[in-house]
Amino acid sequence: MRMRRVVVLSSFGPPEVMSWGEEPCPERGVGEVLVEVEAIGVNFADTMVRRGEYRRDQPLSFIPGSEVAGVVLEGPADGPPPGTRVIVFMEDGGGYADHVVAPLDHVFPVLDGLAASQAAAVFSQGVTAWYAVHRFGRIAAGMTVLIHAAAGGLGSLCVQLCAALGAEVIGVASTDDKRERARAHGASHVIAPDPEALAAEVRELTGGRGVDVVIDGVGGPVFAPSLRALAFNGH
Q1: Of 98, 133, 205, 207, which alpha carbon lies 20 to 30 A from 65's?
Q2: Are residue 173 and residue 105 in the same domain, yes or no?
């Protein structure tokens, strides 16, 4: 019987509530792929799960983790052959393990030259950023975009995508170091997340017009000022 090492969340709280465990590796069903894990993505949503602030429908104890990268060991004939490097979306968690089983339509090949650590780090946030910029934001050259948490995982990807499209990016970040990182990723301007000053600063930077799009993965006290920072017909 193949065994696997896992990280188990048996109570909500700080990182110390997680512990190592060992259990039989799940059996691969029809249309599923068995992957040996090389890297595990840890994004902000995972920390919220650990603290009990997100996906509380999962009963304790459980194995968290929504994205892993690794190598196919076994799979269906119409799937990637053994040895293929893949990224796996673990829709219901279970990614904090050295072996995982997932449906074929949750397994995607990794581009040559992309390290497993990079693939695991960019998957969930990368897909979210792509939808925010292309599908919902409909960003195009010449537009002005306000991006909150511009140095974070999601925000930094949005900054890069928007800048690559020719948009002017106003980033929002909380420290000098984060603001410098946002500029390095392509932000033209970076301001502090001050709810009292945010709308006025954006209006000043845009000559009174406001921004075409706000990408806000933060919410809370900056939400209302972000609405006031929008140009006419902005979204």
Answers
A1: 133
A2: no
